[in-house]
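Please check this:
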Amino acid sequence: MKEGRVDRRVKYTKMVLRESLLELMKDKPISKITSAELCRSADINRNTFYTHYSSPEDLLSNIEEELYGEIKDAIEHSLKFDSIPSLILEICQSIQKNVALCRILFSEYGDTLFLRRIMDIARDKSIREWKKALAVDDPAQMECLYTYFANGCVAVIQSWVQDGARESPQKIASFIDKVSNRGLRGFF
């Protein structure tokens, strides 16, 4: 019974630290947030903080890894269906479920490489599919194509999240698919 209480207290402590860090990151980058400031904001003793994390960056890394794992699981489920459009839809749906967190992570104070890391989960699958569809076997050209595709997706998704994710994940995924597969011809 006592062990259950400890688990709840640990969960509560981690939740409060997470929320406090994300709140602080709305106004400043992680590099400017100190452990002392984070502990004051969370009303948590510094020793308690250091029991769980070594620094605010360590806490942010834990938050990102948790979200990355969730999105990666959804993407890997989608990869079974062998479809890049369904993969993009899975990414958008996972991001929308975590939109408040993603708004901070994708902001100027967040981790600029995090969304790119998510997109790279699908890199090999995308390149294989394009090689078949385009009958191109030039690895440099495929890398260039993927870079173009991934950076475009990242920009669209970042803009969508920063604008409040008002459009549905289906609409954003459909837009990315149209632009990616048909370019401007997809709109005429």
About this structure: The first helix runs from residue 2 to 24. Residues 9 and 102 are 26 Å apart (CA to CA).
